[in-house]
Amino acid sequence: MLEIFIVVSLCKKMGAMMRGRGYEKPFWFQFFVPAVWLGGEFVGAFLYAIGRAMRGESAEGFDIKLYLVAIAAAALSTTLLFAIARSFRSRLPEVSQFDQ
Description:
Elements lengths: L1 H19 L6 H28 L9 H23 L14
C-alpha cells in the first residue's frame, strides 16, 4: 500500500519536473514511472531468487530479503529514469542577462 503512494507521488514529481522544463503534456514521462518501478522490482526479485537458487538456498513463505532487494532495485531503476528525464533539453526559451 505504501508503494502505491510512493509511485503516485513520483508520477506527480515527474510531471512537475517536466512541466518546469517546458513539456506541456508529460504523459509518457509519467507513464514510465510505474512501468519502470514495477519492472525494476520484478527484475531485482528475479535476479535475487536466481542467485539464491544457484547457492542451493530455499525459502518458504515471505522472504524479507527478497522484498528489500526488489524495493531497492525499483528505487534504483526509478532514480535512473529521473536522471534520464533530467538529461532532456529544456523547451523553454533561454533568457540571457542582456535581455532583461
